[in-house]
Amino acid sequence: MSTVETKGRNVGGTECSWCKAIRGGTGIAVLSLLITKPIDISRFQTSLHKLQNSHPILRSKLHTSSSSTDTTFSFLTSHTPFIKIESHNINVTSNILAKNKNDTVSISPLQQIMEHELNRNTWQDRTGIDTDMFVASIYAMPDEKTWVVVMRLHVAACDRTTAVSLLRELLVLMKDEEKEENVVVVEDVVPLAIEDLVPGRKGKKHIWARGLDVLSYSVNSFRFTNLKFNDTKNARFSQVVRMQLNQTDTKRVLDGCKQSRIKLCGAITAAGLMAAHSNKTNSSKKYGIITLTDCRSTLDPPLSNHNFGFYHAAILNNHVIKGGESLWELAKRTYGAFANSKNNDKHFTDMADMNFLMSKAIENPGLTSSLRTSIMSVFEDTVVDDDGMMQQEVGVEDYMGCASVHGLGPSMGIFDTIRDGRLDCVCVYPAPLHAREQMQELINKMKAILIEGGKTYEEY
Ligand SMILES: *[C@@H]1O[C@H](CO)[C@@H](O)[C@H](O)[C@H]1NC(C)=O
Ligand SMILES: *[C@@H]1O[C@H](CO)[C@@H](O)[C@H](O)[C@H]1NC(C)=O
Ligand SMILES: *[C@@H]1O[C@H](CO)[C@@H](O)[C@H](O)[C@H]1NC(C)=O
Ligand SMILES: *[C@@H]1O[C@H](CO)[C@@H](O)[C@H](O)[C@H]1NC(C)=O
Ligand SMILES: *[C@@H]1O[C@H](CO)[C@@H](O)[C@H](O)[C@H]1NC(C)=O
Ligand SMILES: *[C@@H]1O[C@H](CO)[C@@H](O)[C@H](O)[C@H]1NC(C)=O
Hints:
Largest sheet: 5 strands, mixed
Radius of gyration: 22 Å
Low-confidence stretches: 206-224
Protein name: Condensation domain-containing protein
Shape: globular
InterPro entries: CAT-like_dom_sf
Bound molecules: 2-acetamido-2-deoxy-beta-D-glucopyranose
Oligomer: single chain
CATH superfamily of the largest domain: Nonribosomal peptide synthetase, condensation domain
Distance between the termini: 68 Å
Number of domains: 2
Structural class: alpha+beta
């Protein structure tokens, strides 16, 4: 059959915000894997086709249509898989790696390729052209023994839960590739948008309350980053700093969280705030923190991690830091503020307001050029990855995953994973607004604060 039947649906409010934001570069999700075994490209492609078969959003294209007053977006879902892997030879890779040659902070080839892909925006302004939500590339590395495999997705199709499931399912498919394949269409249509799955009573709010919230968000939220900007003029892109703790240090921090009855995001938030504030002796400052929470299990009907798409909601809390706080005291305070907002369903009730503010920020680039919505975004739940054995089996030596944040959003987006007992954070920030040296220094401080806190929690 050569004709490809398509189905579709219009995007929801949150997805629409991502469709608009991505034009400025925010919302490109990248999962990159360092592979140490030769890859059979056609088999890899078969695995990706199976993934597309199981997940309609992965075999969807984004259709954009513009009128004089508005732009609308919709997903067009093909009946059959169509992904084609883009293959880059060593020369191409070498040229990409050469760009960072003179940097004072050295970064791994895997990270360099990931940064390159984070800034490849195939969704920029493509009115009239339908663009794939999911693309894959392979880079041959100059050592001639390794490859970097990259999957790049539009965030409207891929929140962090999706990225984690995608990696897991892909590994299983690659491991079982010897087995007889039988390609079955498991899912036929893209699941509904998050707004259409919010439990009935939670999405509504009294008009006056909504007005107040919009006001407080817009007055408050655009100011509270408080990190120094290096370059506000030149075009922006995303860069990454990686923070890794060993097993001993990780266990101590996790024990501290358990003792304090908080999730790890509380400790990460507190360490980030303390690091950012460490230069400001004597003054007290207010900082905005965005916590992203996966809503799948609380939707009506609930979704599973197998339902790919964007089903996170954001909660914004502001915190005043005076200096002299202890890690666990601050972690309890920040986590408590978040947990309280979540108990009050703020992530559901404020969803429309957050989308409204996001669109205002996108429409007013002048505002976002020097003013960021918050200093940091974190995820409520850490990804725990104990698939190390399976990864080794298919030759995955290392991997990194995150989404671009420049153009809008926080000074730093933190994507944390606990991988075989070690904390591994990918921290994304907008460059050249922030310089790599500055962010590396900030992350070093944050790491030191976490490690120190891990040693002192018993005394607290
Ligand atoms: C790579 O570059 C070298 C030197 O510039 C050239 O000789 C070679 O043909 C190139 N290889 C490929 C595959 O393009
Ligand atoms: C790196 O530095 C050398 C010598 O200063 C210069 O010639 C080259 O253009 C620089 N490369 C990049 C990518 O900036
Ligand atoms: C973990 O890192 C700390 C430094 O933060 C170091 O003192 C310790 O020896 C390391 N432990 C292991 C098991 O590598
Ligand atoms: C901090 O405050 C103290 C007392 O108010 C003052 O003496 C000191 O100079 C201040 N330090 C800085 C760095 O502003
Ligand atoms: C800061 O920005 C300037 C341009 O405004 C640039 O020349 C400089 O390299 C940047 N500093 C760092 C450390 O990136
Ligand atoms: C903190 O202050 C030092 C010295 O004034 C400066 O070099 C550094 O960039 C500052 N760090 C941050 C994260 O702003």
